[in-house]
Amino acid sequence: MSKFPKAALFVGAGAGIAATAGLAITLADRFVTPMPATAPTIAFQIPGGGAPAAEVIPAATEVAEQAGLAEPADVPQAGAAASAPEAPVMKMAAAQGLTDSRLGLGRPALEAEIAAWDVDILPDGTGLPEGSGDVWTGEEVFAEQCAACHGDFAEGVGNWPTLAGGWDTLDRKDPVKTVGSYWPYLSTVWDYVHRSMPFGAAQTLSDDEVYAITAYILYSNDIVDEDFTLSHENFLEVEMPNAAGFIVDDRAEAEYAQWRAEPCMENCKDSVEITMRATVLDVTPDQAGAAEDPPAVEKATVEETEAVEEAEAVVPAALDAELVAAGERVFRKCKSCHQVGEGAKNRTGPALNGIVGHPAGAIDGFSYSKALKQAGEDGLIWTEEDLKAFLAKPRDYLQGTKMSFSGLRKEADQAAVVEYLKSFAEE
Amino acid sequence: MSDILKSSRRAFLRGSVAAAAGAVTAGAARAATPDPLITEVQDWASGLGQGVDEVPYGLPIEFESDVIRRNVEWLTADTISSINFTPIHALDGTITPQGCAFERHHSGAIELKKEDYRLMINGLVDRPLVFTYADLERFPRENHVYFCECAANTGMEWAGAQLNGAQFTHGMIHNMEYTGVPLRSLLNEAGLSGETAGKWVYVEGADASSNGRSIPLEKALDDVLVAFKANGEALRKEHGYPVRLVVPGWEGNMWIKWLRRIEVLDQPVESREETSKYTDTLADGTSRKWTWVMDAKSVITSPSPQMPITHGPGPLVVTGMAWTGHGRITRVDVSRDGGKSWETARLSQEGGNKALVRFYLDTDWDGGEMLLQARAMDETGYVQPTKSQLRDVRGENSIYHNNCIQTWHVKSNGVAENVEVS
Q: Quick one: signal sequence residues (chain A) (predicted)?
């Protein structure tokens, strides 16, 4: 939201909270260990109503200075004081010193720091940067960056979230909750896509791309037409279909009122029948085993055979163990789509056992893009060099690949992950 | 893993249960021949054990290697945005060891060094501040035991009995002793002016999901803790090392891990985690939002599907745990006949504030079938509801906040199954 605190208070949102939060306060811990006398207990009483505009905490300023972060004069004077003249503030602080309960810890946050981290977008549009994007651009970016998991039309792939459709399902069994059928605020879409997607490469989209993707998601949900352009200016005009679909927690009235009662102890019902059994469904994971850790007894035999197989298969030229370890870390960027190692399966991307030296686009059972399949048929073999080049910028290396991954910028990361992949032979 | 291996594992499991059931009669019998474990000198009584320092940081002994967190693969698309379950069936007491406390990540467990850690407070404060980890250690700190329950705990059971094990039906919970600084101390340091009512804090993590949530300022100033230790040692990576938020009694999703920013606002952000998720759809299609408090709940952890009775009739310890986001558990009742009649269990210690309590029913089992249930009551007089009571109010489309009474069908061979009863 805003880069600077606002002085005016907006109280409207509070109605529903009072019940719950109030309750929590009355039930506050009775066994609190006494805190030191200097420690603040109930902070909101301390600054009082007409809080001093801003005090500069000497210790904090010192820290900032030492860290070479800013001249004291550059330190943003917070709060209502943003507009207050600098000098009197400094003087006031000097005169007052610290209030008893403040310890003078921490240092002032700099404007650039707040701008970097405070990226939330509020329902009323506060925080939206200037910019715009249209449905068509959004479709392109979505196809490149999102469709591998969310489907070309945002309809979701496998277990990945569905972003479109589901109208009129909320009051049925197994409602389909999507941006169109469920989300009450458009700000949430912008905020979430901007800070957290694509999965595994968050915070790589430009503001205009986020506008465009948001427009495309709206279009996929039939909320806007195909020639729609979304911008910071018309953002609040978009009506979300389920905006009125939410009520504030009403358990206090709907539930607690009935369920705070003396319970029955004897003859509480005439008969008891079993109406459903979990074992009929049989969806419980294997109790004793799961792949991670079978019980010791069996494990011995499993490990023996595997060890033998591995010893035969994995005799690659000596690997650089440190590089392999570094590569394992880099591989976290890939894990959202690829598995490697024992029992690796094809997921969003193909399983990568034995990929180094393997023909491209040829892992069994994976459905590749035309581009990668063709490259393989044309004789592309994943040598270390080719892999590094591919991983540096997948879509530049191979136009039309469906690997939605922006690339590994650092050569060290490319080398490390390739070394790591070399440590897994084909199963 | 191959199917053959899987099925052999199942057979192994079944075998062990059958063997246990077979032992039923022998259990109480007098020994006919001397027990070689007693009469013969065992290796461990003659040779030497492991020296100190062989395992600088100890792990459970190998015989306990099945007491681990487990994942239900079909629940999520991958393990990075996913959840696993605390092996509550095999634990006792109240404190959950960190190493087996459930994990829930939205973009994986990140590795963030203390030296790289920064916590920002901004928004409607007098002085936006940045704290380092070392700064946090200089504030007066407190210790509290609190439970942390994912709002989705027992969520798979809304429509009917699904998962056969307390770990899977109720394992999205842990209970730890936290060391940390009250959030109010940090807010005070930044300076709050004006009214508290109607204001919010928005809290977010340093990971890619950020998992931001809006919390009313009243709660933030009440008992929310900025924690850096759990059970006496540093938080584990998977629980937000080096610093996480502890929001006592409220749903686990609000306990932001890798806490990086706290913003004071005059309205909620309505982030993805408080709109698309963590809202509760009722039968008519409207959805409740801001359902933060976790209502009173209990579950019998043994006997349970993963903990069959292996000793035959006679003395039996029925045990389980109970908790409430409204304060303290005051009583737990147990039924063996599916809720027709109830007896009050023994609480092993006084219920702590927003902390797990352990209960025991020390009883005599006649070897007959049982429909075991537990029912918790808290200090507000709230009684844990049955599944049908919940469904009457909410319908069957909710995911979160299922705190219904759980039933285990214990058969005469001691095997237990997750069932639903009328």
A: none
